[in-house]
Amino acid sequence: MSDAQLYEDTFTITTLLDQTYDRVARVMGTSADSTTSVTLDINSELYPLNTGENVNMLIATTLNLDGSSEDRAKTGWRPPKAGEQTLADLWDYVCYGKVYRHEETGEGVNIKVYVSFGGLLLCLDGPYRKLSPLRQDYVYLLLKK
């Protein structure tokens, strides 16, 4: 499963902006080791967050527990069969989106990775060595408190 799990970290929410849109909040936070920052648009009605809370984040290429890849072109999206467990069952909030931009900063030491989840955006800014596995086309974002 480790190959399917591209990035995992715990963030402390430092800023919460929820005045712009109904049911959408932009949260900003820093990782436990203070090397990575996150800016994330989230459906605040489905998954409310507050300043000072810690949230675990996982970015993966598949929801299959065994790490096997998904062929969306052949199968499309489908709900799990009765009794079938996926990685989504272990997390509170799950999104599927497209990585649309990478931006090197700080003379190649840091990188910014941008992902769109149907209009809800994610930006991770941190060390190249931690975020370089995110050079993918499509990923899942999974969160839990």
From TrEMBL:
Taxonomic superkingdom: Eukaryota
InterPro entries (UniProt xref): NA-bd_OB-fold, RPABC3
SMART domains: RPOL8c (SM00658)
Similarity comment: family membership: Belongs to the eukaryotic RPB8 RNA polymerase subunit family.
Organism lineage string: Eukaryota, Fungi, Dikarya, Ascomycota, Pezizomycotina
Gene Ontology cellular component annotations, sorted alphabetically: RNA polymerase I complex; RNA polymerase II, core complex; RNA polymerase III complex
Main location: nucleus
Pfam families the UniProt entry points to: RNA_pol_Rpb8 (PF03870)
The keyword Nucleus belongs to this UniProt entry's keyword annotation: yes
Protein name: DNA-directed RNA polymerases I, II, and III subunit RPABC3
Entry keyword set: Nucleus
Function: DNA-dependent RNA polymerase catalyzes the transcription of DNA into RNA using the four ribonucleoside triphosphates as substrates. Common component of RNA polymerases I, II and III which synthesize ribosomal RNA precursors, mRNA precursors and many functional non-coding RNAs, and small RNAs, such as 5S rRNA and tRNAs, respectively.
Organism of this sequence: Hortaea werneckii EXF-2000
